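tool_call: predict_structure(chain=1)
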Amino acid sequence: MPDSAPPTAFDPAPPSLPPIRHGGDDAAAAAWPDAPRPLLDLSTGLNPRPYPVGTVAPDLWARLPQAANQVELLAAARRYLGLARHARLATAPGSQMLIGQLPHLVPPGPMAILGPTYGEHAPAWARAGHRVETVTGLDAARATGATTLLITNPNNPCGRVFSPHALRALLNAANGPRLLVVDEAFADLDPTNSLAPYCDHPGIIVLRSFGKFFGLGGLRLGLMAAAPVWVEAMSQRLGPWSVSGPALAIAARAYADTAWITATRARLHQDARRLDTLLTRAGFRVVGGTVLYRLVEHDDAAAWVDGLGRRGILVRRFDYQPRWLRFGLPGDEAQWHRLSTALKAAEPHRRSV
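tool_result:
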């Protein structure tokens, strides 16, 4: 069995950790009770024009998920991801579930996270007994001697991207990690950067989110692509029927809809450029992001959050970098107009404090 193979489940008592605050939650909405409704939530990074789910067979709601539903979804997902021939897929009710469960399959030890990145990774690994260190570059990651390295690719929120060649080289380095975990939640817009075609390697685990690109966050579906030993361990931990029949059917249909996928990628790239133009004109400096959201910088970022919030528009701020804001894409022309109008009205020097 390879060094990176999972042991028996390890489940220590979790340490006390601060809660993670996310954009788009009820607390954010409650901060501006007098803001016009409906709120325009640009904080979450989801495709604002979701995949059209169409009709779902009534019996899928009435019975437990069937093996045929799972087989159909897995076949469509394999083709969509270009999955390595000998790799396997585990399904879960959202990639967040995988983020929380994966650390319990890995022997506790030193692990590094390339950051700053999505805030749920570090607490999940710490709860499972790992010694977590956040680093800012690949050289620093190798210097830690960590046996597990986690990278979000493209990174959330800055959008930094590593090529598959660069990531695979880490596993061949003399002081590199034995296990490389790659969170590809935002990788759908450029499949050439995915490690899915290489994840039959026992030292590579790829996590994918269905909801972000397809705009169906409420459907709750995540995928883990890895060698069979990892997928079997995760599937046993999650248990049977972890994903509903309707979710399996909708996702299978979506992954196979190449016309929608191609058109949506083109539209989202165009919308990201449009948002860059709008935000630049408002005085922001675009410093990164992915196609589904843009990361900007401004000296008065906190004032912008409040000014936009009072006008019913939610954006994401970051405690560790108070000059940063994250803007998701508006979904239709009415939302684009509302954002444009709010940016003009909420500009800090144009309104009273």
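agent: The domain at 58-256 is CATH 3.40.640.10 (Aspartate Aminotransferase; domain 2). Proceeding to next step.
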